[in-house]
Structure formats: C-alpha cells, structure tokens
Amino acid sequence: MSEETAKIPKPKMRGLLQAQIKRNLILTGISCTIAGLYMKFIFGNGRKKAYADFYKNYDINKEFHRIRRKGLFDSCDPYDEADDEDDNNN
Hints:
It is a single chain. By secondary structure, the chain is an all-alpha fold. The chain has helices spanning 2-6, 16-56, 60-70, 81-89. The chain is 73% helix and 0% strand. The chain has four helices and no strands.
C-alpha cells in the first residue's frame, strides 16, 4: 500500500498564481487583438464605405433649402425670395 501512495505526484503549489496570471494576460491580449481587428475590418470599413456612398450623392445646398422651407431654422425665414433665385440658377 505504501507503494501506491508514493506514485501520486504532489500538486504544484509554488508559483501557481503567477503562472495563472501570466496565462490569463496572454489570453486576454490575444482576445483583445482579435476583437479590435474584427471591429476595424468588419464593422469599421463597412461603415466607412456606407458614409462614402451617402456623401457621394449628397447635396448640402438642396438639403439646406429643404429644411429651411420646413421652418426648422430659427436664424432665417422659412421662405425668402432669394430661394426662387437660387432654385432658378441651379
């Protein structure tokens, strides 16, 4: 019986916490890097492309006059004679 108990290895207790912390830091670094790359390439580049497509055909003057006619601006009148001149020139 004494031979059977001698074959069981003793658990490694010295330096166990440092080993676990080191392993957890490495895994955390790898997972953060993967998440960052995912956000950049999958999410970020898709959003940049969507913004580029939107602003390709966006006319800020037309949008300004549309919002102005609705009366949403406090700094200028909703309708002005200058609008007719601007619309005729464009």
